[in-house]
Amino acid sequence: IPIKLGGFDDIFAKAGEAFSQVNPATKAPRGALAPGEAGQWTYATLALGSALALFMYPHSITATLSSRSREVIRRNTTILPLYSLMLGLLALLGFMAIAAGVKVTNGQLAIPQLFEDMFP
C-alpha cells in the first residue's frame, strides 16, 4: 500500500494536509501529526508513561488474573509488546486511508475500505 501511495513521505504529507484543514464547525484545524513546540514534552511524557504502564493496562491485568499458571503469564508477557506494535500498524493504516482519499460514513470502516480499494 505505501508503494501505491507514493511512499511514507507522501502519506504523511497528505495526512498533514488533511489535519491542517479548518473544521467549519469549530473554526479550528482538525488536528496535527506532531504537536507544536509547546506540546512536545507533554506528548513525550505521555508516550513514556504509556510505555512504562503497558503491563498495567486492563487487558493485561485481566489476562494475568485469569491465567492458569505462571507459564501462561510468561507467554502473555512476551507477546504483549507485539500487541502494541499492532496498534501502531493500525495507526499507520489510518494515515494511509487518509492519503488514499478513503471516504466512509463510519470511521471504523476506513481500513477495510482501504484494503478493498487497494487490493484486487
Short description:
The protein is mainly alpha-helical. It has helices spanning 8-20, 40-52, 58-65, 70-100, 110-118, and strands spanning 22-23, 28-29.
Outline the fold blueprint:
Blueprint: H1 8-20, E1 22-23, E2 28-29, H2 40-52, H3 58-65, H4 70-100, H5 110-118
Antiparallel strand pairs: 1-2
Helix pairs in contact: 1-4, 4-5
Relevant terms:
single chain, 120 residues, mainly alpha, two-stranded antiparallel ribbon, 5 helices, 62% helix
Structural overview:
It is a single chain. The protein is mostly helical and 120 residues long. The chain has one domain. 62% of the residues lie in helices and 3% in strands. It has a two-stranded antiparallel ribbon with strand order 1-2. It starts with 7 loop residues before the first helix and ends with a helix. The mean pLDDT is 85.
Class from secondary-structure proportions: mainly alpha
Order of helices and strands: HEEHHHH
Count of distinct structural domains = 1
Let me know the number of strands.
Answer: 2
Strand order of the largest sheet: 1-2
Mean pLDDT: 85
Low-confidence stretches: none
Number of helices: 5
The Rg value, from CA coordinates, equals 18 Å
Level of helix content? 55-70%
